[in-house]
Amino acid sequence: MATTTPTTPAAKMRTLGPGVLKSTDSTLARDFSADVTKVMLNPSNSSDDPVNFLDGSQEINVTSTWNLEATVMDDYTVGGINNWCMANAGKKVRMQFVPTKETGAMAYEFDATIQPIGIGGDVKAKNTQDISWPVSNLQSVPNNTIN
User: Fold this and answer.
1) 68: β partners
2) I want to staple 129 with a disulfide (CB 3.0 to 4.6 A). Which of 26, 31, 56, 118 is the partner?
3) ∠59-63-64 over CA atoms, to 5°?
4) CA-to-CA distance for 99 and 8, rounded, in angstroms?
5) Which residues contact 60 (CB under 8 A, 6 or more apart)?
6) Can you tell me the distance from the alpha carbon of 20 to that of 73, in angstroms, rounded to the nearest whole number?
7) pTM of the predicted model as reported, rounded to 2 decimal places
């Protein structure tokens, strides 16, 4: 009778950070990692009503669109994130999101369309702004292939 040796499952990586969020576009390169307090690639899924066929089968069209959603700290300097987003609104940039730098983790590359973000908030406070940028060409890659 053959014996089997139980295998130990790989450790799961469940904590976001330390990681990287940056634009890798040659003319608009910027590292957002030190500005971001929350970040996610968020899908929006929708489906049409099913089409029923005489043979009993169905066809359902399902589509997914993605957004880069993040919360960033205001930066009122000339080159700060608020002004950078305003100056580059509407431009599509190649980006990388590395949720954790741990060995064996996944990373994500995608194109994002920059949109302006808010400026200001409560007086004598470190204010945050929310980003929601449309994403296309999303790909997952091992983080050891990211520069």
Assistant:
1) 41, 133
2) 118
3) 150
4) 24
5) 47, 48, 50, 51
6) 16
7) 0.81
